[in-house]
Write a structure and sequence with these properties.
The protein contains 12 helices and 13 strands. The chain has helices at residues 13-27, 68-83, 93-106, 124-129, 133-145, 154-164, 214-225, 241-250, 287-294, 325-336, 339-357, 359-375; strands spanning 2-6, 31-36, 50-54, 87-91, 116-121, 148-151, 171-172, 200-205, 230-235, 257-261, 275-278, 299-302, 317-320. The chain has a 7-stranded parallel β-sheet, sandwiched between helices. It has a 6-stranded parallel β-sheet with strand order 10-9-8-11-12-13, sandwiched between helices. Helix 2 (68-83) packs across helix 3 (93-106) and helix 3 (93-106) packs across helix 5 (133-145). The model has no long low-confidence stretch (mean pLDDT 91).
Length: 377
């Protein structure tokens, strides 16, 4: 198949999943064309069957800001026409599915192949942007106008059906990880780079937006480090990072927190951690949590979110209601103070991730869905 993929090229879950999917599809012999305003975050090396098409915007006095969506739609149509795309797979309903619909209208008079539009919902487009009244009708239209729709969790699919009254099928295809890269005890990192002997390493990876509840991460860690020697490893960047640093300084934790910023290959670092914190307000799935589990790192997170489909409570991590930092810290301490139990959780984390979410399990589901949509005519 010839597949076009559009995503946000930043260090967020949707962009990472889209990039990893494109790389896996290319490895499996498909021709993959990325269409975006910048090179996707993890698309950092040459690969056979993989192409990138940049979207350039130009300023014009009448526009408040450059019309990226119009330029993107035109670029989608251009790539679809020149490379005869079978599928245009867009990640996020707003604006990407909308742009794909417009691109398809531009191709109505084209005698060649017309691509099928498949939209993957990741969460923010539904739970935050999509639920904004000003975007509601456009989001619903874009989903219904797609030839096929997937969601990264049942939680998100149900939320989409409920919020937008969508009647068409939303196929659940979970996020995934590359088992050849994300695995316990890789030789790429050394705990001595982050902690002293006898100290524990607690990790958190996110885009540091309010929904990630960064202050809760700091509060949980503070409670942990008061009881056992530990350090906190923060990976990522975002608007709450400045406030987080102030909170770290205010609590006197500056010497116990390590900030690495954005990292394109976190699989080299995660295996060094003992626990992973994800106390988010909302998670449609929790890709960072999955990648931590794959590296053998148990997760402390929030119930009532998509994390319930990733973390097996009491087996490879613990889940609590949003904001319950005290029981989260106590659960973490219960593991850190019991070496046998911690090892069992670590082993189970890696095994469960591999059995449920590895690329060889999930990527064929996308291939099958592509074919179903194409065969539907």
């Amino acid at each position: 198949m010839v597949i076009g993929i559009t995503c946000y090229p930043v260090a967020g879950g949707s962009g990472i999943v889209a990039t990893e999917l494109g790389q896996q599809l290319a490895q499996r012999g498909h021709q993959v064309h990325f269409i975006s305003y910048a090179l996707p975050f993890r698309l950092d090396r040459f690969q056979k069957n993989l192409f990138y098409h940049g979207v350039e915007t130009t300023s014009y006095p009448l526009f408040k800001s450059p019309p990226y969506t119009l330029t993107l739609a035109a670029r989608m149509a251009d790539v679809a026409r020149n490379f005869e795309l079978d599928v245009l797979h867009v990640h996020y309903a707003i604006p990407h599915a909308t742009c794909a619909f417009l691109a398809k209208q531009l191709l109505r008079d084209f005698d060649g192949k017309q691509p099928k539009i498949i939209t993957t919902l990741h969460g923010t487009d539904i739970t935050l942007v999509g639920s904004d009244p000003s975007f509601y009708d456009m989001t619903r239209f874009s989903i219904n106008a797609s030839d096929g729709v997937t969601a990264v969790s049942k939680y998100l699919a149900d939320e989409t059906h409920d919020v937008f009254k969508i009647e068409k099928e939303i196929r659940v295809v979970p996020n995934f990880f590359d088992a050849s890269r994300f695995k316990p005890k890789t030789g790429e990192c050394s705990r001595e780079e982050f902690v002293n002997p006898g100290e524990f390493l607690i990790a958190h990876v996110s885009n540091f937006r309010p929904v990630k509840r960064t202050f809760d991460v700091i509060d949980i860690f503070d409670r942990i480090q008061q009881q056992v020697p530990a350090r906190l490893l923060l990976i990522g960047e975002g608007p709450d990072m400045i406030l987080a640093r102030r909170q770290i300084n205010k609590r006197g934790l500056n010497g116990r927190v390590i900030s690495l910023g954005n990292q394109s290959r976190i699989e080299a670092v995660l295996p060094c951690a003992d626990l992973f914190l994800m106390p988010s307000e909302e998670e449609s799935f929790g890709l960072a949590a999955l990648e931590a589990l794959a590296c053998g790192v148990p997760v402390i997170g929030t119930s009532g979110t998509g994390l319930v489909e990733v973390v097996e409570d009491g087996t490879n991590g613990f889940l609590f209601p949003v904001g319950r930092t005290e029981p989260m810290a106590q659960a973490a301490l219960g593991l850190l103070n019991d070496a046998t139990k911690l090892k069992l959780f670590k082993d189970t984390a890696a095994r469960c991730a591999r059995e449920r979410f590895a690329t060889d399990i999930i990527v064929p589901q996308y291939e099958q869905y592509y074919q179903e949509v194409l065969d539907a005519g």
